[in-house]
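User: Can you help me understand a structure? I only have the sequence.
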Amino acid sequence: MPKCCLCLLLPFLLCSQIALGQTQNLDYYLEQGLQNSPLLQDYAYQQQSNLIDSLKVYATYGPQVSGSASAMEAPTTRHFGYDEAVSNGGDYSGVVSVSKELFPRKLRNARLLNIELLNLSLAAQRRLDAQDLRRVITAQYITTYADLRQMQFSQQVLDILRQEQPALRKLVENGVYLQTDYLNLSINLNAQTIAHRQARIQYQFDLNGLRILCGIEDTATVELAPPDIPVQALVAASLTPTLRKFALDSLQLSLNRTQIDLNYRYSLAAFADAGVMATTPQGVPRHLGSSVGLRFSVPLYDGGQRQLEYQKIAIAELSRQRYRDFYLRQYRMQRRQLQAQLTATDQLLEDMHAQLDSQKKLLEMYRIELSAGLVRFTDYIVLITGYAEMQNTLVQAEISRFQILNEFNYLK
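Assistant: Let's start by predicting it. Here is the structure, written out as tokens:
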């Protein structure tokens, strides 16, 4: 029976001995994820495009030069042709025109400020998205690291059971323990080997998920270093990326009101042209000329649309304030909750480590007494099972602490 069991377990034992590759840490995946993110790169492209728009604004309010030319002949006969009073018999013209908006500084500055606010809003949104990406990558890293810890603990229990197998076989042969005890050990060893393989499969699956999230093309099996997540000092709510976006939204609404006022401001433009205008080809050399002038316009009445636009901006501002106040309440509540969870989890981990140390000492004592046949082997198996369960509970608590730190550090 023992030899048969060993033959059945040999493939599983060989699989459990496969070594992991190089070690990679959380910073590596965060760097790769941020670098490979097309969304974050797109924000930079949008900001570059907005800079081009600002140059277009300067060009818009500079001198505008245009040219036009036309040649039209309207032939007439006795019973056919347009009335020459309408068509002039033809039209031959070639004109170059220049126009320039006068006193455009306020309008130009408003448009430039709008582009600047748009870039600031893009930068704030990029910080938010980068923070979300860091939080998601860190969460996936923590999940994958939990799989690794589970695999390592199952390997540790597997090693304990494997170390007892030769000694137990001799004790069974000497009649100290029963054959059923050895079979019990073999069954538990087999079950632990399967659990170890399952943990390895889950680890590889979540590791691939982490790579997909970061845009990393790699299939090698690596070992993850423990997550280095120091407790960061929480910034004041007024300095968070989200509240900065609320402040930018307020500036945008104020600018919108200014632009409405500018739309009701007078406009004055100067223009000049030079060229030729004639009704016949023969008259082209004799009708060279030019003209200059001013164009003035001012809105007089629009049915009260200006006040309606003011009302829309006031409603948008009330909505912004409601969202901002709700965010501030949420932020304060989440901060208090996470701080309390972190304190409670740290205390729980201390108690778990103390409990695990006691179980480990008891396990060593049982191993000594087991070699002398002083304890029942079933009690030893129960103790190992409890030790493995305690280790699993400890892993879950450690992972929970990492998750709290992740939420705490990226609270936005």
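Now, to help you interpret it: Residues 105-173 form the longest helix (69 residues). Strands lie at 23-24, 64-73, 90-102, 223-224, 267-278, 288-297. Let me know which part you'd like to focus on.
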